[in-house]
Amino acid sequence: LTYTNMEPSTFEKMKMGAAMGGTVGLCIGFVFGSISLMRFGAGNKSPISMLSQYMIGSAASFGFFMSIGSVVRSENRFLISNMNLPIITNQRRIMDNKIKYIDE
Prior knowledge:
The protein is mostly helical and 104 residues long. It contains three helices and no strands. It has a domain at 10-77.
């Protein structure tokens, strides 16, 4: 077997973010839904349907935002146009410090 060190694709990262966000959303929906049921009751609905509505809603929103966040975070940070920017900035700082020392 040959293993390669390939980075996951953007779509795979989006799926992982959605899965993690969905899991976190289910847990948070269970906690806050249970608290809401204990405080206010289920109303006209059954407690199970009320709790599942909380859990599905929070899982969908957390999953959506985590998938977007994982894609935004994993964008290519090493574009050719941005490669020299930190070096130029550091060189300017170095040059500014040298000029300050020379003037003093």
